[in-house]
């Protein structure tokens, strides 16, 4: 089967040569699906077909799990320092091939090249570097257990084969969050990327070959939700790691209930970005814009509810509207683009329906004048004022470039409104007062709380939710525990 060919060029389509078709990556080889089924992956900015990709069926998933099981015997027995060498090699190849990967990601996902190049790709490499560093220090990975306090000098054991299912919003970054800690801890993996963004995972498979990773340690099964369901239900899986919607997360929890499988679920969010009247407003406006319009708002921890203190509401909203009027929506491969394409026609329909519901329920809709391209899937950055807590746009995850503005008078009211959601993934606080930041951070039921910034990520920081945003943590030392028998 063909792999991705390198063609040096500036940030443009020509950087990466995409083959007309791709197979599944099982046991170190690309191969067609057993029943020959394929599906198309599109560029959401042009609706052009980028490639045809194999649709894994039940037998393909079984082959992949068996390959991972076989590879587990030798991979888990390698000294951590040897596994680290492979991970460091993968990290370096990602850096070397980051232009190709950034262009591929922007083509298949629709995100602006400035984001894939300057945010996604550096974070992907950083994850592999970070977890490579842990592979020979696992005796220190589990809280309360360390050779230094005499509890255990032995490495904790890996779980076995991890079945990993990821969404389309950060295709390669979500892959890195899953694969890097799994491999560092001695597990092997079968990963299913989202149906609309399979290409960077297949490119990554090629990188595994380039790095000389032993066959079967990483397997990629492309397909739709049915492939994900088969993977999660497969009896040969020891660990399920899922990132996606709360609805599918609940179905997965039901599937694995009563089995030996360990599970981590990273699900939806409806974060509050809370601005007090003493906050540096210019800085807050940048944080609000980055919080909701980064990656077209396709971000689980997006600051989709702006809670602004009543006394600065008018001033803040004027500044925010001025800033939103400068955002450029358009070609993801143009370095000046701020907001790219919505990932799919289905997602665009979902965003439109919720925005229409916002208007129908009485909130006031505003968007800057901007011309949207004629083909592809687009949605202008949009702001709703006069939003109440009962409105759907204040309660449901929109997963698009739509901001709902609510107001508050006191810190207590801000906390109550911020926590009034079934989700609990993230929150932001903008204020000059350090004591208020600490007080709020303790009261907010959110896995991540940013202060005077938003959407900042680091591989050393654990990430994950409360309530219906899921359970388990990814990133940092906590992210290792999810793959270890502790
Ligand atoms: P989902 O529809 O849940 O899809 C996620 C993945 O699960 C996809 O690969 C999907 O395949 C697969 N899938 C669908 N049905 C399945 C089933 N019954 N069993 C197993 N796998 C199944 O979510 P999405 O629309 O791709 O992503 C958006 C959601 O992800 C949002 O709610 C967002 O908040 C959440 N998200 C959370 C985080 C964190 S870290 N908490 C990060 C990113 C995104 P197909 O693509 O083929 O349908």
From TrEMBL:
Statement: the UniProt record of this protein carries the keyword Transport: no
* Positions of the catalytic residues: 266
Pfam (any one): Aldedh
Q: Which UniProt keywords apply?
A: Oxidoreductase
Q: Which residues form the Aldehyde dehydrogenase domain?
A: 35-485
Top enzyme category: oxidoreductase
Documented EC number(s): 1.2.1.3
Where is the secretion signal located? none
GO molecular function: any one? Answer: aldehyde dehydrogenase (NAD+) activity
Q: What InterPro entries does the entry give?
A: Ald_DH/histidinol_DH, Ald_DH_C, Ald_DH_CS_GLU, Ald_DH_N, Aldehyde_DH_dom
Entry similarity comment: Belongs to the aldehyde dehydrogenase family.
How is this protein named in the record?
Answer: Aldehyde dehydrogenase (NAD+)
Please name the source species. Streptomyces rapamycinicus
């Amino acid at each position: 089967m063909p792999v991705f060919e390198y063609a040096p060029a500036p940030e443009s389509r020509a950087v990466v040569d995409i083959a007309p078709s791709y197979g599944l990556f099982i046991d170190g080889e690309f191969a067609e699906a057993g029943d020959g089924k394929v599906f198309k992956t599109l560029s959401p900015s042009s609706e052009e077909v980028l490639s045809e990709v194999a649709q894994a069926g039940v037998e393909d998933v079984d082959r992949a799990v068996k390959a991972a099981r076989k590879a587990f015997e030798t991979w888990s027995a390698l000294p951590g320092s040897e596994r680290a060498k492979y991970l460091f090699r993968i990290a370096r190849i990602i850096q070397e091939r980051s232009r190709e990967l950034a262009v591929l990601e922007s083509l298949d996902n629709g995100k602006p090249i400035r984001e894939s190049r300057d945010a996604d790709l550096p974070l992907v490499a950083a994850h592999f570097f970070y977890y490579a560093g842990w592979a020979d220090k696992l005796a220190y990975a589990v809280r309360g257990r360390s050779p230094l306090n005499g509890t255990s000098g032995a490495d904790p054991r890996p779980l076995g084969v991890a079945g990993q299912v990821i969404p389309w919003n950060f295709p390669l970054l979500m892959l890195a969050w899953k694969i890097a800690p799994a491999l560092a801890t001695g597990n092997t993996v079968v990963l299913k990327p989202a149906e609309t963004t399979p290409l960077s995972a297949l490119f990554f498979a090629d990188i595994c070959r380039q790095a000389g990773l032993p066959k079967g340690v990483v397997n990629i099964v492309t397909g739709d939700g049915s492939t994900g369901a088969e993977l999660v239900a497969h009896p040969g899986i020891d660990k399920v790691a899922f990132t996606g919607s709360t609805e599918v997360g609940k179905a997965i929890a039901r599937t694995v209930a009563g089995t030996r499988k360990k599970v981590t679920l990273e699900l939806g969010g409806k974060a509050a970005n809370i601005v007090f009247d003493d906050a540096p407003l210019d800085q807050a406006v940048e944080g609000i814009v980055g919080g909701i319009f980064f990656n077209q708002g396709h971000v689980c921890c997006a600051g989709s509810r702006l809670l602004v203190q009543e006394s600065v509401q008018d001033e803040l909203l004027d500044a925010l509207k001025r800033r939103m009027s400068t955002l450029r929506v358009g070609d993801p491969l143009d370095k000046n683009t701020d907001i790219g394409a919505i990932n799919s026609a289905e997602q665009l329909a979902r965003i439109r329906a919720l925005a229409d519901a916002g208007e129908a329920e009485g909130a006031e809709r505003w968007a800057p004048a901007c011309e949207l391209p004629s083909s592809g899937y687009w949605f202008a950055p949009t702001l709703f004022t006069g939003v109440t807590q009962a409105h759907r746009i204040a309660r449901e995850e929109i997963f698009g470039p739509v901001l709902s503005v609510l107001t508050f008078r006191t810190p207590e009211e801000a906390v109550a409104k911020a926590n009034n959601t079934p989700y609990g993934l993230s929150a932001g606080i903008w204020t000059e007062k350090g004591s208020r930041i600490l007080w709020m951070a303790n009261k907010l039921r959110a896995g991540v709380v940013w202060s005077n910034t938003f959407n900042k990520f680091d591989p050393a920081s654990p990430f994950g939710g409360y309530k219906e945003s899921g359970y388990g943590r990814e990133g940092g030392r906590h992210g290792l525990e999810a793959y270890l028998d502790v």
